[in-house]
Amino acid sequence: DIVMTQSPESLAVSLGERATINCKSSQSILYSSNKKNYLAWYQQKPGQPPKLLIYWASTRESGVPDRFSGSGSGTDFTLTISSLQAEDVTVYYCQQYYSSPPTFGQGTKLEIK
Amino acid sequence: EVRLLESGGGLVQPGGSLRLSCAASGFTFSIYAMSWVRQAPGKGLEWVSGTSASGVNTYYAESVKGRFTISRDNSKNTLYLQMNSLRAEDTAVYYCAKVPYCGGDCGWFDPWGQGTLVTVSS
C-alpha cells in the first residue's frame, strides 16, 4: 500500500497569513502516460464529513475559494491557503488514488496563532 | 442536489453483524462507482470497500476482507455494507462516498454522506 505522510501534524497560523500543509507519498503517484498526479485534498470540520477541495493535485473543486491551491508532483505535494480565514481552521487530509487501496494521510490540524 | 444518506449503524457486540445502507439521490446512481470510508473516533480516514457502477467488481481493505461485503441495488439507488464478525477496532463512523465518473481514472470521493456510527462493544 502507498503510505501518505502529512506534515506538520498541527499548524498554527495567524489570520490573513499563509498556511502550508505538506503531503508525501511513499512512492510516486505521477502516472507517466498522462502526466497526472493522483492526489486529492479534503477539508473536514468537526461533526461533518470530509469535503473535497482539490483533485489531480492542483485542480480546485467547483465552489472552493481560490485562496486554496495545490501543488507538487511525484511524491511531494503541498496544500496552500494564501490568506487564512477563521472558517479554514480545521483538519485537512490528502489522499492518493494512484493505486488500490486508496490511502489517506493522517491529517493536519490547522489552528489560529 | 446530490445526497447520500447512511443508516443502519448502532451498538453491536463483538462477533456480531450489522448491515449499513446508503440511499442515494440527485444523480444517476447506476453509472457511478461507490465506496465506504470509515473514521474511528478522533482518528483519520480509512477506505474500507468499493464497488464498480454495476456492482460486479468489488474491492476491500485487508482489514475487513472476508468479514465485510459491499453490494448495491441500482433499482433502489442504494449501497450496502454487510459487516460480520465485528471487532472493537471496527468502531467508527462509516461514510458512503461517490466516485466521479471519468473512465476509471478518478479515485477521489465526492460527495460524502453524513455518516453512521458503528460501535462494537460488549
Main beta sheet of chain A, described? Answer: 7 strands, mixed
Strand content of chain A: over 45%
Distance between the termini of chain A: 36 Å
Low-confidence stretches of chain A: none
First CA to last CA of chain B: what distance?
Answer: 40 Å
Summarize model confidence as the mean pLDDT of chain A.
Answer: 97
Question: What percentage of residues of chain A falls in helices of 4 or more residues?
Answer: under 10%
- Number of distinct beta strands of chain B: 10
Strand tally of chain A: 13
What radius of gyration of chain A results from the CA coordinates? Answer: 13 Å
Structural notes for this entry:
The complex is a heterodimer of chains A (113) and B (122). With 113 residues, chain A is an all-beta fold. Chain A has no helices and 13 strands. In chain A, strands 2, 6, 7, 8, 11, 12 and 13 form a 7-stranded mixed beta sheet that branches. In chain B, 0% of the residues lie in helices and 46% in strands. Chain B is built from no helices and 10 strands. In chain B, a hairpin with a 6-residue loop joins strand 5 and strand 6.
Write the layout of secondary structure elements.
The complex is a heterodimer of chains A (113) and B (122).
Chain A: E1 4-7, E2 10-13, E3 19-25, E4 30-31, E5 36-37, E6 39-44, E7 51-55, E8 59-60, E9 68-73, E10 76-81, E11 91-96, E12 103-104, E13 108-112
Parallel strand pairs in A: 2-13
Antiparallel strand pairs in A: 1-3, 3-10, 4-5, 6-7, 6-11, 7-8, 9-10, 11-12, 11-13
Chain B: E1 3-7, E2 10-12, E3 18-25, E4 34-39, E5 45-51, E6 58-60, E7 68-73, E8 78-83, E9 92-98, E10 116-120
Parallel strand pairs in B: 2-10
Antiparallel strand pairs in B: 1-3, 3-8, 4-5, 4-9, 5-6, 7-8, 9-10
